[in-house]
Please model this.
Amino acid sequence: MRLSGVLKKNVPLHLLKKRKKISYYLKTKPMLNHYETVFIMTPVLSDEQMKETVKKFENYLCDKGAEIIHQESWGLRKLEYPIAKKTSGFYQLFEFKSEPQIIKDFELQYRRDEKIMRYLTVALDKDAIAYSEKRRNLKKEKQQTEEKEK
Model:
């Protein structure tokens, strides 16, 4: 059921009965969801081309108003099955917050870029967000202990 052009599930329950407050809420509080995207780039790219491609998608997200929380390069990895006759690819992960409307355009950019072999974007729930924060913190602690040992 729609309420003044907005889905009910996006609006807090205490505002559903008060139409004036709903429009104010929607104007002042943009709906930011937490997303994670992983994409695989073709292995024939040079290191410079790979960094350029990653920077291109990072800039696209920033230009659209997304907040990049974390990004990770997983490097060159072997694929489980061949994609376009290639058996390896460069993996990259972005974790970001953005409005849901941006995702459709962002994935269109993936499809248009011939350097991208596969991509997957998922919305994270509260448990997945907690897990990714825990994973990042453990990684930071591990790096700090390695630096202290040196």
